[in-house]
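Input (structure):
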């Protein structure tokens, strides 16, 4: 992770890439009024420090994963959570693994070819991982939204200004 805080130029480059991940350095430079060299150097630094990851995200159903699922996993004892998360992250079916709060300790997204593949993963392989005590599996029927974080949320004052002067009149004034 980066030890240097992101500045407005870094955030502007990231917003440009979120709009279109294939946008050229020349187009980004033109849109931001900066040199191509500046964009290239900033892009390289964002990659190297782990701030930016460039990936191609395929639609799971279109490429043949007909049983994508979200699996919540309880790990007991709690001292095994990190080790269990690491082992689960190494499984080829996992696309997302997070340690979470709440009744379960891990949230895991998996991509499986079909229900037989998902069943084998959830009933045979996951339970063999030390600490996996309970699972709750939800089949993903359709993805409605898949997005990256909205970087505008980091600066709510700028977002309000961008939306224009909103009416701040209390709709229920006190008498």
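Output (sequence):
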């Amino acid at each position: 992770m980066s030890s240097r805080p992101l500045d407005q130029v870094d955030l502007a480059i990231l917003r440009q890439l979120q709009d279109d991940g294939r946008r050229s350095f020349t187009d980004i430079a033109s849109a931001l009024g900066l040199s191509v060299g500046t964009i290239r150097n900033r892009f390289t630094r964002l990659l190297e420090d782990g701030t930016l990851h460039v990936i191609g995200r395929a639609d799971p159903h279109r490429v043949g994963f007909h049983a994508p699922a979200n699996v919540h996993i309880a790990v007991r004892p709690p001292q095994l959570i990190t080790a269990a998360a690491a082992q689960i992250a190494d499984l080829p079916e996992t696309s997302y693994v997070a340690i979470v709060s709440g009744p379960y300790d891990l949230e895991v997204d998996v991509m499986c070819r079909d229900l037989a593949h998902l069943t084998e993963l959830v009933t045979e392989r996951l339970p063999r991982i030390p600490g996996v005590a309970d699972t709750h599996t939800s089949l993903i029927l359709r993805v409605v939204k898949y997005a990256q974080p909205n970087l505008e949320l980091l600066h709510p004052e700028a977002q309000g200004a961008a939306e224009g002067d909103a009416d701040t009149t209390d709709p229920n004034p006190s008498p």
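Notes: Strands lie at 69-75, 94-99, 106-110, 132-139. Residues 1-56 form a domain with the Arc Repressor Mutant, subunit A fold (CATH 1.10.10.10).
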